[in-house]
Amino acid sequence: VMDETGAYLRLKGAANRKNVTPKDIETIVAKIAKVPVTSVTATDKANLESLPERLSNVIFGQDDAIQILTTAIKRSRAGLAAPDRPVGSFLFTGPTGVGKTEVAKQLAANMGIEFLRFDMSEYMEKHAVSRLIGAPPGYVGFDQGGILTDGIRKHPYCVLLLDEIEKAHMDLYNILLQVMDYATLTDNNGKAADFRNVVIIMTSNAGAREMSANSIGFGAQETTGDTRGLKAVEQTFSPEFRNRLDGIVQFNHLSTATMEKIVDKDMDELKQMLKARQIRVSYSASVRSYLAQKGYDPKFGARPLARLIQVQIKDRLTDEILFGKLTKGGKILIGLKNDQLTFQFKD
Fold first, then answer.
1. Distance (Å, rounded) from C-alpha 184 to C-alpha 179?
2. Distances, alpha carbon 237 to alpha carbons 233, 259, 322, in Å
3. What is the pLDDT of residues 187-205, one digit of tens each?
4. Mind telling me which PROSITE patterns this protein's record contains (predicted)?
5. Looking at the chain, which terminus has fewer C-beta neighbours within 10 angstroms, N or C?
């Protein structure tokens, strides 16, 4: 390890340093073990304690999902989880555009571990499923390992997202039963992948139509709709599959207050884009409410918001940045008049 650390510092351009610090060794050990550096430092406790709060700052209106995920992770770190199972296996259900995939992304980002995503629409056929663990002898690609097993061996600490799991072929469910039970999967070459430090998240839109049957507008939810949504999930997934899950998390429709927080998040991203061009943006509360209302659809969730900001704000600013009043930077005040966005430009 000391030789590796010295070589690392020399390649990094720190050859003049005569001392190797504990932090340097931690960095090399983390690289060798393929775990994040923060997982071998004393700050891990503080990071773990603040994980729910940090996720709540970027994921809005889905506190139940955050609570279930973080509890499973803390249980694993405390040594109270089953030793031969993944950190957690969860099924996220609910309407599209409410943050199911984003929760998985932000969990990986905040934990400092790898994020592996597989779109299950690519594995609808029986032969396609074999790509995950490798093709059998006599088939094309036998000399290559499986996409899933190789990914887990390279990144044993990761968040694994299986997006839209209901689209996958039934053979994939049989593979997942073993993974959720014993946290191991063997590829076509006999090499085992260890899932004990993996958070498995599967998303599904099953039950979304039933949940929204009686929903109109922001946050409108009926108990009967939620019940029908759960029944649809039960009809889609077999009992043996559901029995191995650590939790089925039903995502909520987005409320007005939640949408306004998402507007602020998306506008903050726009501000960062414009900051590089010396452009500052501010907007009124009425603009926030306007974008929250126009950017939400019960069927599509918050997805229309990004298109709304692109069409009504970004496209409006494009010509000004390239040819108009913002070529040398400036300030923009976005307002609302007669249900239309207005722009004031200042130097």
1. 5
2. 6, 31, 52
3. 888 889 999 999 999 999 8
4. CLPAB_2 (PS00871)
5. C
User: Any long-range contacts for 320-328 (C-beta under 8 Å, 24+ apart)?
Assistant: 320/345, 321/277, 321/279, 326/277, 326/279, 328/278
Straight-line distance from the first to the last Cα atom of the chain, in angstroms, rounded to the nearest whole number: 56
Kindly report, residue by residue over 288-347, the tens digit of the pLDDT: 999 999 999 888 889 999 999 999 999 999 999 999 899 989 999 999 999 999 999 987
Q: What share of the chain is helix, strand, coil (3-state, %, to 5)?
A: 50, 15, 30
Stated as kind and residue range, the H or E segment containing 322 is helix 315-322
d(CA 134, CA 129): 9
For the domain made up of 256-346, give the CATH fold. Answer: Helicase, Ruva Protein; domain 3 (1.10.8)
* Spans of all domains in the chain: 2-33, 44-250, 256-346
CATH of domain 44-250: 3.40.50.300
